[in-house]
Write a structure and sequence with these properties.
With about 270 residues, this protein is mainly α. It has three domains: about 70 residues, no CATH class; about 80 residues, no CATH class; about 100 residues, no CATH class. It is built from 13 helices and four strands. The protein has a two-stranded antiparallel sheet with strand order 1-4. The radius of gyration is 23 Å and the shape is globular.
Amino acid sequence: MHRWFDIVGDKGIAVTETSYLNNALAIQWIMEFYKATSKITRGTYRLLVYDGFGSHITWNFVNFCEKHKIIVCILPPHSSHILQPLDVSVFSAYKHWHSKWVYDATVSGYSKITKDDFLGALAQIRQQTFKPSTVKLGFRLTGLWPINPTLVIDELVDLNTPSPPSSALGSGSTRDSDLSTPKTIARVKKLEERLEDKIARIESPSSTRRLINKLAKAATEFSYLTSELQSNLERTEYLREIRYARERQKARKSAKLYGIVHSSQLKRI
């Protein structure tokens, strides 16, 4: 793993037994957050918005925040899709730029995408994602800043409004399908059929019909392309896992580092 630090420079790398966040890593993360925001904090306090995941609400975590004047805003359960700025605007951009990089790498002839490749591209992906305008948009759309609770209330009202009968929307239609983005070819085709049905009902002008048909055709083509790329990546990943299984088995027997590690710490190991 030493070569990873040559790639990421002064950034930290976190490793755990399960590859998931745990209580110990959460404490290290909040310490990193404190150091990273100390010099840019305006006023005395800073605000941290996050969900109620168990490692975020331990006594040590909350106690650290209180001692260092970090106000914790814990979102209600099952609400991050309308209240969490990252979920609302940033993660979609993150996925877009990562998918674009994967696509560019694939068409450029990458036979496999390793962890080294991913870490090498991560800085560029993050730079393209975390633009001030994108971050501010997330806070605005969630009503956090400028403060606008109406945005959230209206969204909750829409979510709790009874769905019209399926016959009014077309066979098999539900409100859940309206709220989710189609991710398979079948769902894209279903959405195309529903759009066509709605156009027929409202007697939309022919120009609008042509534009929607073009959009549906483009979405279908992209779905086929995405499906093919995903299959290729899965096959490549499977072959790579087989190839490096023996090396990983040897690595598990060697000494490991857990938690957030910086390049400066390698000199003391």
